[in-house]
Amino acid sequence: MKLHSFFITPNNRKVEAFIKHYQLPVEIHQVSFKDQEHKSEAFLRMNPMAKVPVLEDGDFCLPESNAILAYLAIKFPETDALPTDVQGRAQADRWLHWQSCHLMPAMGTLKTSDEKDFEILTPLFEVLNNHLESREFMLDKLSIVDFAIGAYLMTKMARGLDYSPYPHLAAWRERVTNLDGFVQTQVKIPPAA
What we know:
Helix content is 48%, strand content 8%. By secondary structure, it is an alpha+beta fold. It folds into 2 domains: 2-79, Glutaredoxin (3-Layer(aba) Sandwich); 86-181, Glutathione S-transferase Yfyf (Class Pi), Chain A, domain 2, CATH 1.20.1050. A 4-stranded mixed sheet has the order 2-1-3-4, with helices on one face.
């Protein structure tokens, strides 16, 4: 099994962190965008969108980070990272869609806009804070949802935000940041010359 990735982005980092946290037998290959590897015929057969991450499992290729997380959790049930009951799975799906439909676009807007209106995050952080009021993790125990959402709150921009109005979110973020997989995938900034 092989993951084609570019670790510096949240969608790639969440999958790499999951793999490393659970020490899954998945080779991680960093795609060279400089060499336009993502536009090669071989890569486009795996993902016609020319984007990473893409998981290869034999002849099966799967793009889209949240789909990859779910696939890995099912493929490696010992992770216990995805509920198997229908309502638990529905809650996992809900939060994965929430991340891709609400959190990711909001963070993308902030990243690309010249004038940063961080108020766009207020309702999202309130939702997370309220949800985490009586929970250690998003689905009560560690799951793929924590990796999916957590990666977006560990970006360079997100690290500089004030989480003090959201104590439950701040505590969860600290727990997830300290997971072995996220520690191993932390971008190392070289010292200034």
